[in-house]
């Protein structure tokens, strides 16, 4: 049985760590994690290479991985089980649905790595004004959104949107960071990586 067929079974009987309806846990994420801890959300986790490594390196946090394709969640979940990572949950579907279900100021860290640049449809970009409004709503005081891309046009667009939304920016790619599989390949090809940490101003 292929991974896509196995993943389809998650829609019929999801395991405890795959959450089909994030609205059930709005303002009560400790119920699924079994503890109260700072919450990290990775948007568009792909196969979960970065998310799993980051969760393992930050056991004091709870981690949510958002991904539209269930077969990718299936692969990431199998890897997390093999690695014994217990502070990780997965949510399939459109990221907006989950972000809208999160309580205001409940997220300590948002991660967005190498999203689709949508060169002809800027309104679909995950750093468009509509999405930044959602991020601003869910980020906790002193929370941070970490964004990386290899697309210079998307990076310049995103910086402009962050600034327009009054985020405070630290433009840099951390030297010590968890790399995605794609990032390793791009760095091997000599491509530049652009990154920023965005924070809300203190009130």
Total strands: the figure is: 7
What sequence of helices (H) and strands (E) makes up the elements? HHEHEHEHEHEHEHE
Based on CA atoms alone, the radius of gyration comes out at 16 Å
Spatial separation of the terminal alpha carbons: 54 Å
Shape: globular
Which range does the strand content fall in?
15-25%
- Main beta sheet strand tally, sense and closure: 7 strands, mixed
Strand order of the largest sheet: 3-2-1-4-5-7-6
**Structural class by secondary-structure content:** alpha/beta
Low-pLDDT runs:
none
So how many helices?
Answer: 8
Helical fraction equals 25-40%
Arithmetic mean of pLDDT? 91
Features:
8 helices; 203 residues; 22% strand
Can you tell me about this structure?
The chain has helices at residues 3-12, 30-33, 49-57, 70-83, 95-101, 129-138, 152-164, 181-188, and strands spanning 39-43, 62-67, 88-92, 107-113, 139-149, 168-171, 194-199. The protein has 203 residues and is an alpha/beta fold. It has a 7-stranded mixed sheet with strand order 3-2-1-4-5-7-6, with helices on both faces. Helix 1 (3-12) crosses helix 4 (70-83). The longest helix has 14 residues, at 70-83. It is globular, with a radius of gyration of 16 Å. The model has no long low-confidence stretch (mean pLDDT 91).
């Amino acid at each position: 049985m292929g991974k896509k067929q196995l993943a389809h079974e998650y829609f019929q009987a999801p395991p405890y760590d795959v959450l089909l309806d994030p609205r059930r846990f709005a303002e009560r994420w400790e119920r699924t994690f079994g503890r109260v801890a700072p919450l990290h959300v990775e948007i568009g986790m792909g196969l979960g290479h970065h998310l799993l490594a980051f969760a393992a390196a930050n056991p004091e946090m709870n981690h949510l991985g958002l991904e539209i394709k269930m077969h990718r969640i299936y692969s990431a979940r199998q890897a997390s089980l093999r690695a014994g990572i217990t502070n990780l949950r997965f949510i399939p579907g459109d990221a907006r649905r989950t972000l809208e279900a999160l309580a205001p100021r409940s997220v300590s860290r948002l991660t967005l790595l190498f999203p689709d640049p949508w060169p002809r449809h800027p309104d679909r970009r995950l750093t468009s004004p509509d999405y930044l409004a959602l991020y601003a709503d869910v980020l906790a005081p002193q929370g941070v959104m970490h964004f990386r891309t290899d697309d210079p046009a998307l990076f310049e667009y995103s910086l402009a949107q962050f600034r327009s939304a009054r985020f405070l920016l630290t433009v840099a790619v951390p030297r010590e960071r968890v790399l995605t599989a794609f990032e390793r390949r791009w760095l091997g090809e000599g491509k530049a990586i652009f990154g920023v940490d965005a924070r809300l101003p203190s009130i």
